[in-house]
Amino acid sequence: MFDQLTDVYDAMIDWPKRLAAEGPFYRDWFQQIGAKRVLDTACGTGRHAAMFHSWGLEVEGADLSPAMIQRAQAAFGEPAGLRWTVRAYDQPVAELATWDAVICVGNSLALAPNRETIRQAIAQMIEALRPGGLLLVQVLNLWRLAEGPCLWQKCLRTQVRQAESLILKGVHRSGDRGFVELVVADPRGGPLLAHESPVFFGLETAELVAAARQAGAADVQFFGGYAREPYTRESSIDLVMTAHRSLSIPIHPQSSSGPKAGA
Predict the structure, then answer these.
(1) What is the pLDDT confidence band of residue 16, given thresholds at 50, 70 and 90?
(2) Higher pLDDT, 203 or 253
(3) Are residues 156 and 102 part of one domain?
(4) Does residue 256 fall inside a structural domain?
């Protein structure tokens, strides 16, 4: 999905507006912990990673999709202090316990194939952190949506692959699953160009806290968005979690999974 529609996903987002809104949140947290090295574990086309690098940080952007990484490399290159790699967020990181901050945003964690993968991903991300390092996760808050018809959020006419295209994006909920409806059409009445319906989980604060603490995290907090507003299950658009790797959790350089509770 992400390999085939990389340019569509990138075109849907007003990146200058989004980064301007989110940037102060990241910058404040990074300054609080004195961050110098940041790992973006689901970097997509690299916009956040490139922004962090522009702040003078050493950054690695990783993503499961080779097409996403290729687009990031083409857009931002690999200057000193910025590198890209193809790797899923639930896979071991080569440089364990060395990162000051690890992020997983853009609803990426909720797109995992199952909840066990979500727990594994949180463990891998926390294990990548140095003691006291920051984990920051953002997903969509599915619970604010009533079950029922698709809520259409975006209708955008733009250039995709050097052709005029109409992009429609919506979301709907069925139980604890969300569905992002993505339609790409010819605005002149031609054939449908693409239709995808990726599925994502509705995540609860309790399960995120449990997974983070089992992996060795402390000081877990939740926000309803990047303005640090309180998270409200019934109405918040986002669910943003921050957590720090405990100072008392030992480092296992050769380990491939997160530290266990009580370690």
Answers:
(1) very high
(2) 203
(3) no
(4) no
pTM: 0.90
Q: Is there a domain that residue 1 lies in?
A: no
pLDDT of amino acid 254: 43
Range of the domain at 210: 6-142+202-245
Whole-number pLDDT of residue 1:
57
- Rounded distance between C-alpha atoms, residue 151 and residue 170, angstroms: 5
Quickly count: other Cβ atoms within 10 Å of residue 78's Cβ: 11
Q: Which CATH number is 85's domain given?
A: 3.40.50.150
- Residue 260 in any domain: the answer is no
Total structural domains in the chain? 2
User: Do 22 and 12 belong to one domain?
Assistant: yes
Other Cβ atoms closer than 10 A to 121: 24
Average pLDDT over residues 35-62: 98
Task: Tell me which of 1-15, 50-64, 75-89 is least confident.
Answer: 1-15
Per-residue pLDDT tens digits for 83-121: 999 999 999 998 889 999 999 999 999 999 999 999 999
**258 in a domain, yes or no?**
no
Is 44 within 8 Å of 9 (Cβ atoms)? yes
